Structures are given as structure tokens and as C-alpha cells.
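Recall that a protein's primary structure is simply its ordered list of amino acids. Everything else, from secondary elements to tertiary packing, is in principle encoded there. The following example makes that idea concrete.
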Amino acid sequence: MVNVLILAGAAPPRPAVLLEALEEFRERGAIVHLGCYFPLNRLPALDGLAEAYALPTSAPRGGLRRPVLRAEPTRRMWLNVRSDPWLRRRAQEADILVALDWQAVYLVWRLAQRHPEPDAVYGLAPSLTAVEKRLGDSRPVSAPTRGRTVSPLGLLVADARRNTQDLARTVVEGATGRKVMRVRAARQVWTAALGMPGIPDSPRARLAQRVQESMKKAGHGASAAGVATAATRHLQNPGVRAKLLTPLVDAELAAGRRPEHLETVVAGELATADALYRAKDLTNAIAATGRVLDRIFNRALHIDTLSSPIAEDPAGYLGPYHNSAVGRALAAPRGRSGTAGPPPTDRPLRLLVATGLNDHFVDPIRRHYETVPEVEVRRLDLTEEPLRTFLTNARARLVADGLAGGSRYTAQANEIFGPHLAWADTILVDWCAAPAAMLTLADPGNTRVIVRLHRFEAFSVWPHLIDFSRVDDLVFVSEHMRELTMAAVPRLSGPDAPRTHVLANAMSLRNYVAPKDAGARFTVGVLGIGAVAKDPRWAIEVLRLLRAHDPRYRLLLIGSDIKPEVSPAARRYREAYERDLVELESTGAVRRLGQTRDVAGALTQVGVILSSSVSEGAPYAVVEGTASAAVPVVRNWPFYSGGRHGADTLYPADWVVDTPEQAAARILAVTETERIWQDAGREAAAYVFAHWDWSVVQRDFDRLLLGGPSGARPAAAPRWGGQ
């Protein structure tokens, strides 16, 4: 048994990495104690993986208080905790002392002077190595060999060196301190100096980081950004360049904005991850890869925004990741032990439908096939144990498994999914997300695997972590989603790619047929406004243009408003949206209906259904509204304007507009008279019933699920935008 004492000065920035390491310790039989110089509520749930203890952070009372408060932060930590009974007891019992971060290095060093027997290491990867060494070598080792003792002469030399370094640090700190950075001339001098050639990478980066921090503390964030930009012009090492720019990029992402230097930071992190992966330092390679994915797929870039780099140039934006060593490792196909065949002829088809938290799209399909005699349906509930636990922290597990070329997660996947796959002829997984990706860790054998992708997943990490060699059919909800996703995920055009299909959502449109209220002709409805991508402010601009022509036009907003707490970008959009509505709501020009279960009833008030979104997959709102005989007006979703497919290929061309002015012109034309409006509504309703009612779409699902393997297997990805 090995006792490990881990000491942390700050809450871990990537808790998943710590949890992974603690699981490794437990599997090796180590007992872990975790001393935290921060509140324990900043830790993730440890689930018995370690004993966590909050170290004292306040200075002692009495004459020592002032020297402690004036001490350098890492030394102050030692002075605050050195007499703590828990720490003294655990350090005495420990076989290995671990500094989890730089703040704890000095503390571990001082403990190692008191306790020479334990190994003292910095970081999780070295600590795991130390555990393995301890377990593998049980021979008694003398204290001088195993310990970390320093001779008195060594202590004097170390003190002299430390004093010299302290003097140099004092000079630098004096010239780069916060007070100095309040002076404009000083900021200009440092920016110019750090942008000069001839300074080696390491000191340039360290000094630039110091200057940046002081400028930010002095309240001059723009100058800090300028320093980083100036210094990186002459940095040769991509990893060092990325390290310097990372705080700027992360601050912009946290503020919900697209960073200027994102590509530079991603390139540097990828270079670091690749180097660690090639050196077989998997623990740190996994952490570095996680940081890359955090930034590439940050929701500020793709979800809470009116544009997305994946939509603008999927191949260009994601190319560096796909071409990296870690990206290629995570995309490597594993294949399968069998091949899915046609449906059985001597018994019902066994259909397993995987469902979880969002079953809105798949439940109508499941309920239908439960009534079909030729199909035996079972439901795989992804929210039940042990599946829920296995799917927790899915991305970190998939990255760990992919870079290691297999792991205990592969065995767990086969154990958990194996009985279900053995029963099923076909498994249908709605949402190309974490459960689908974790499922492909298991060998499906002869079971046919069908995965359906909606809009959200195309802008997420999940299609890049799925082993598509274990997926037989990939179903898209629209042609433009297939085009974008195949441009973003090159593997979908390779030899191991699944067949691809486009099948609409299951909608029973008869529910929306009802007489319109009086005055509905002049009511423009927007159904679903709860995300920035719905862009209801665009609809408000359309309303202003309409009311300038005729004040009878009104706007009805149906659905929950954007939640400002989701992200800073969502908060900024919501604030601007509320400002837009102040005058319009007070005059009755705009009414917010809020969330309602009676969508069909709400649509009786709507004469024109407007899609103001910048991005949609295959929206229910347009089809449902049109089925109610509201005339459709659809913005040509900007996310897909670079491809061959979009709103103007999903719907009749005359429904689609590019600008608020065009939208207003179409609305004025189709509502010019009661007769014109009613005729236009009936014609549009007939079109959606012919294309999207379940009575039509069901036949497509029958062909997919009951007709055996069929469909297109594209030889090459479609062109996107300027490719």
C-alpha cells in the first residue's frame, strides 16, 4: 500500500484530469490525501477517490502575523500551514509528496526537508510514475538514497542563490509593477522594448507575462494585449507564443467574444500536445488535447453567436486539428468484428432505441414502431445506471482512450453495451453526441448502428470523437447539415465512412390545422426565440419596416426568452433585445407569449410565420407554422450561405429572403388582401403536408429501418464556400 499526499495551492483548472489521475491511483492500490489551500467547494465530487482537507489560509495571530502577510505567496502558504495537525500527520505517513501546481512547490520542498523518506515530485504524471516505482520495488532503501535531504553547505549555497535571485526579481518587479504601469510612457516603453528583436524566447515570454499582468492590474487591458502582440512577433517557439497569448484568448472567450489570436494559441497547444503524445507522456498529452478542444469548440464561437468559424470555413478552421498527431490518433478507425446484414425474415426486427434527456425528436418514431408487428422495440435509457456514470466526463474518457489506443473504457463499453448490442439487430441513437461516441468504444459485431445528427452536434466536438467505422448509417435532418458536417469531418468521406441519409423530423402536422383568429393576417409570429442563433432582433427590424408602411402589423414572440445567465454573449444580446422592445411593447406592437404547450392554439393568432434565425437544421417552427396556414417567410440562414444547400434549397425559393427589407416586402405582398393571404397560406400548407407530414416521412424511416442497408456512401466531401 502506498500513501500519497497531494498538495494544491489553487483549484485545478481542469478537474477532469485530476479525477482521471485519482482513478489511476485507486486502481494501483494507492491511498490519496488531498490538501487544498482553497475552499473545498471548488473541487469536483471525488466519490471516495481521495480524502480532501482544507488547509488554513489565514495568517497566525501575534508577532508573526505581519511577516507572514508580507511574505512571497508560496512562502506565505508554508508559514500558514506548517503547524497544521492534519498536514503534519499526513506528511509523516506519506510515501510520496506531490505538488499539484507551482503554488505548492515550496510547501512540498519544505516538507521534504522535515521528512526525507518520501519521494517528492511535481505534477500528476511524475506522481503516478513514483507510485509504480514504489509498488514495483519493495526493497528497503536507505534514507540518503531515497530522501531529499540537503546538506548545511547546500542550504547556504541555495540561500545565497535565492538571495541573488530575489534582488534581481526586486529590480524587475520595481520596473514592471502596477504603479509604474499606470504611467502611459512606461507602458509605451515596455511595449516597444518587448517588440524588439534579439531577445531569447524564454526571457522575452517571462518578462512579457509580468508586464501584461501589471498592466491588467493597473486597469489597462488594451495595453496588455498590445504587449502580447508585440512580443509574439519575434517568438519562434509556437508553444511559448501560445502560452503568452493564452490569457488574452481565454479572457475573450470568457467574455463571449471571438479572439483575435485564437488560431495562434490553438496551433501552439496542438504542437505541445503532439510533442507530449510522441514522447508517450499520455497524461499531459490528454490534458493538452483537452485544452485544444475547449478552445476550438467553445460555445462563444458557435452557439451564442451570430456567426461561426466552422460555418464560415469548416475545413480551414478545423484543418490544423485534423492534421495534428493527436487529431489523427483520435480519428483512427478500429473497425469491427462483424458486418451488419439485412433485417431478419423469420422473426420481427429487434430495434433498440437509445434515449436520454432530449427525446423530443425520437419519441414519435419509437412510439410508431412499437405498434408495428414486424418490429420488436426496446428502449435503452441513457439516464439509468450504469450508463449514466459511464457517460459522465465522456470527452475526457474518449480522448484518453483514443490517444492510448484503447483503455479500460473500451472494456467497460463492451461490458455495458454488449448485452444490448447482442440482442438488437439495429440500434438507433438520436443525437450524434456523447452517448453515440461512447457507444462506438464497443465492438458492435453484426448489429447495425444508426446515428442521427441534428444542427447542434455539427458545431460540437462529438463528430470528431466518434469511431465512424462502427457506424453503419449516419442520418442528417437536412441536406445543408450533411454538406456542412462532411466538410468539417473529413473521415465521413473516407473508406470507413458510414452510409449517409437525409430524413426529416417526425411531425404530425394535422394537429396544427385550425381556423385563424380575426386580425391574424397582420400578425407576424416567431416561434422559438430562446437562443442567440434565433436572432429575434432581426424580426424586430422587419416589424419596424412593416409598421412604417402600416401600423396594423404586430409581432408575436412565442417561446422562452434568451437566458442571460448562459453566457456573457447571451447576456449582451438579451440586453440589446430588451432595449429594442421597450417602446414596441408599450404600444402593443410586440407581444411576448412565453413558453406554451399549446403551440397549435398560439398559431391561430399568426398570419405570417417568420424564421429570423442565423442557423437552423430542419426547424419545426417554419413547418408547424406553415401547416397552420400561416404564410412562411424564411431568412436565408447566414451560417450556410457558403454552401450549395441552405434555406433556399430546403424550402421553395419564394419563401426565402436575405434582408429585413426583402422580408418586409414579401409580407406586404402576401398580406395585401385577405384573399391573397388566405390563398398563399393554403398553398404553403399543402406543400409542407406533402413533404414533412409523418404520413410521408414515415415511408423514409421504413426504408431506412426495415429495408436493409441502402443509401449513399459519398466518395468525397462536398465543396464548401471558397474551398
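The two ends are 58 Å apart (CA to CA). The chain is about 50% helix and 10% strand.
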